[in-house]
Amino acid sequence: MTLANGTVGISSFIMVGLPGMEAAQFWLAFPLCALYVVAVVGNCAVMFVVKTEPALHVPMYFFLCMLAAVDLVLSACTMPKILVFFWFGAREIGYEACLLQMFLIHSLSGTESTILLAMAVDRYVAICHPLQHAAILTNSVTAKIGIVAVARGIVFFLPFPFLVYRLPICGPNTLRHSYCVQQDVMHLACGDRRPNIIYGLTAILAVMGLDSLLIFLTYVRILSTVLQLASRQERLRASGTCMAHVCVVLAFYVPLVGLSVVHRFGRDLPRLVHVTMGNVYLLVPPVLNPLVYAARTKEIRRRALKAIRRA
Predict the structure, then answer these.
(1) pLDDT attached to residue 5
(2) How many CB atoms lie under 10 A from the CB of residue 307?
(3) 3 burial class (0-12, 13-18, 19+ CB within 10 angstroms)?
(4) How many Å apart are CA 308 and CA 46, to the nearest integer?
(5) How would you label 43-62 residue by residue, b for 16+ Cβ within 10 Å and e otherwise?
(6) Looking at the 3D structure of the chain, how many domains does it have?
């Protein structure tokens, strides 16, 4: 035992791989690495295409670039460590490194949630108030929204590592995931966890919970407007512009809700369920987001294919 957090505690944590599948972890790391490469290449490609294609210099694609940047950082702060663990058995993560990773995961998730809400508002203005879209969502406003998204993620989730730091972790130091999250680390503490639980739930509801509700209400309004359009072709065109964003929203919130439910109510579930849900939450959005937008957006698909042919 060492002085890790002001009280008798630990200096590191032990991460968990795939319980019951330890012998296969080395080989399973290869498809995980392939997915990580897809996430990095796909999100970098989206950012490159939007930057080099003047026709895409509009709020919807600027928000998509922000989303890609967040996914890149989120993947970079988790997946390399997981791959090193699976390939080389390096299960240990330092106490301070764990707190930093925990803050990055939560704050980046909060930032991504805010960007998804901004993208929903962009679709709402484009469909429900098309003549005012250019005047309302200017490039300056879009940049300010991006800054607010980052600031919101930092402000709401910066207390997480400090709330964990005050807790004496006197017992086992084995996590339930291959990375650090607040719900996991605080359950290893032997002190009063109520402030962590109360603030954690408040922050999640104030950011992800509120954002998901507003996104839902926004799409109810969009659907109402689309159904009032005169022709079937106009309805299909309007709804088609929203499909990619709806898929991205589901890719983010469904794993998030699943992981939250497992953390809150599934403590008796096998550890494999916790680890699998955690890895799905980390991998699905960064991998699917660029693929969805490449499949649904002609401009991105055309520009990416052109770049591949030139290469």
Answers:
(1) 47
(2) 13
(3) exposed
(4) 13
(5) bebbbebbeebeebebbbbb
(6) 1
Distance CA 246, CA 119 (A): 10
Pairing status of strand 12-14 against strand 8-9: unpaired
Structure pTM?
A: 0.90
Q: What is the pLDDT of residue 311?
A: 58
Tell me what pLDDT residue 104 has.
Answer: 95
* Cβ-based neighbours of 62, under 8 Å, separated by 6 or more: 50, 139, 142, 143, 146
Residues of the chain with confidence (pLDDT) below 50: 1-8
Cα separation, 233 vs 248, whole angstroms: 24
86-121: b (≥16 Cβ within 10 Å) or e: beeeebebebeebbebbbbbbbbbbbbbbbbbbbbb
Q: What is the CA radius of gyration of the chain?
A: 21
30-70 pLDDT, tens digit each = 999 999 999 999 899 889 888 888 888 889 889 999 999 99
Q: Could you read off the pLDDT of 145-191 as tens digits, one per residue?
A: 999 999 999 999 999 999 998 888 777 888 888 888 888 888 888 87
Here the tokens at position 64 are 């998509």
Task: Report the C-alpha gap between 199 and 193 in whole angstroms.
Answer: 10
Query: Going by DSSP bridges, is the β-strand pair 8-9/2-3 parallel, antiparallel, or unpaired?
Result: antiparallel
Residue 249's domain comprises 2-310
Which amino acid belongs to residue 294? A
* CATH number for the domain that contains residue 33: 1.20.1070.10
| pLDDT given for residue 205 in this prediction | 93
> Under a CB-based contact definition with an 8 Å cutoff, are residues 21 and 12 in contact?
no
